[in-house]
């Protein structure tokens, strides 16, 4: 939530709640094996159609809206496992790619997603705008083929 508050668009709890409870929202949830009340994290995703730089082509996308892990669950491979499961789901449903949005200030997330093979998507501000225009955006859009 902190990064959202500092973002250009700010934090809107009602909008985030609506996004997280839309009928299309799907979750992968990690709980403790010994106590199901202990949550380690979740991945929120949706299967969506996204624009491309070609006006006549849309992409079928497994879109990662949120990947959240409690601090104590980080660096054990859980985030990587969640993203691997999303790739398998995307493959199963024959999606073109996986996508996500990441704040430029979140250097750890950038390193994590780059390690998993994600790159700037063609519609990411830095990929499709001039450097001057792209500076106005505090996020990038990353993607990776599902196959």
Describe this structure as you would to a colleague:
Belongs to the acetyltransferase family. NAA40 subfamily. It is found in: Cytoplasm; Nucleus. Keywords: Acyltransferase, Cytoplasm, Nucleus, Transferase. Residues 1-139 form the N-acetyltransferase domain. Pfam families: Acetyltransf_1 (PF00583). Helices cover 31% and strands 32% of the residues. With 147 residues, the protein is α+β, with helices and mostly antiparallel strands. It has one domain: 3-Layer(aba) Sandwich (Aminopeptidase), CATH 3.40.630.30. It has a six-stranded mixed sheet with strand order 1-2-3-4-6-5. The chain is globular.
Short characterization:
Keywords: Acyltransferase, Cytoplasm, Nucleus, Transferase. It catalyses: N-terminal L-seryl-[histone H2A] + acetyl-CoA = N-terminal N(alpha)-acetyl-L-seryl-[histone H2A] + CoA + H(+); N-terminal L-seryl-[histone H4] + acetyl-CoA = N-terminal N(alpha)-acetyl-L-seryl-[histone H4] + CoA + H(+). This protein is of the alpha+beta class and 147 residues long.
Helix and strand arrangement:
Elements: H1 2-6, H2 13-21, E1 26-31, E2 39-51, E3 58-69, H3 78-92, E4 97-103, H4 107-115, E5 119-120, H5 125-128, H6 131-134, E6 139-145
Parallel strand pairs: 3-4
Antiparallel strand pairs: 1-2, 2-3, 4-6, 5-6
